[in-house]
Amino acid sequence: MSDELTPERAAGAAEEAVVATAHALHVAPSPHVASSENVTQIMLWVVAALLPTAFWAVWNMGWVAAQLLLVCVASCLGTEFLWTTASRKPHTLWDCSALVTGILLAFALPPRTPWWIAAAAGIVAIGLGKMIFGGLGWNLFNPALVGRAVALLSWLSVMARVKPYPGGWYEGLSFAGTDSYDAISGATRLAVAAADRAAGGAYAFDLKEQYVPLLFHNLQGSLGEVSAALIVAGGLLLVLKGIVDWRIPFGYLVTVVALSLVLGRDPIFYLLAGSVVLGAFFYATDYVTSPMTPGGRLVFGVGCGAVNTITRFYGPAPDSVMFSILFMNGLAPLIDRAFQPRTFGWPKRSAKDG
Hints:
The protein is an all-alpha fold. The protein is 58% helix and 0% strand. It has 15 helices and no strands.
């Protein structure tokens, strides 16, 4: 019969099946599960989440906010371009990571930071915080916070001599005895709260009255502190998109609230004041400088919140988001090692195996 399956036909069919399978399968090194979004798309989503806060800051603060954003972004982009050119490596501006670093650096600085300090901070953020390690994916510490830390520690005296605009949109809070806090960032609500606490409540600083300004219209502090509500909205957008793992901001924010309650402080005020929500959603969640394991991310967030809260109440700086995240960045590899998953297919090693 013509339809009879002969050995020759069976062999031919098997050979055709092998060829078809070889064409259907793509053999390549791991990872074998790929995301539909690349680095550029992820970074652009982060930029989109930050833009409402940036626009609101410029709308309320004017040219000084716009100048700070422009200088930080330009210095970060320029440094990365010059570094890759000088080292004869492919240019990496297309991945938009330097753009994100520039915006986050501006958000970490007070709006009246001198332009040359902002430019120096951008150069340090990219050069020392990122490229010297080998570029994106190799740096140990968050580049934007590295730039901010160097600027703060190097030019603290210069920044402290710059006063807010008298009678203008950007003033320190007018509470008696707070003149010593009128540095470049003005008498921030955290600084006044710390002074009031140290004075035993002599300034009658009502923390509950600060909730609404901190949420929507805070002109005392760093650029990114202008609206906690916009920062939270941007952060939740990234969480819903799956770009940010919820474990880090959840662990961070819950720890700040819990420890504030345990220490007898107003948890809502200390959650909204300073850069806590900004740090929880945008600095601590940096892919490169945070743990890769789910459990490690939760521990990392809790650690950031614990260090932040303890140093805030018992340290010299009322807002210690920067140092708490940089400290935990250094511990991220150890946290990942502690939460390293068991290798699939290998039995547990017993004592008798030697």
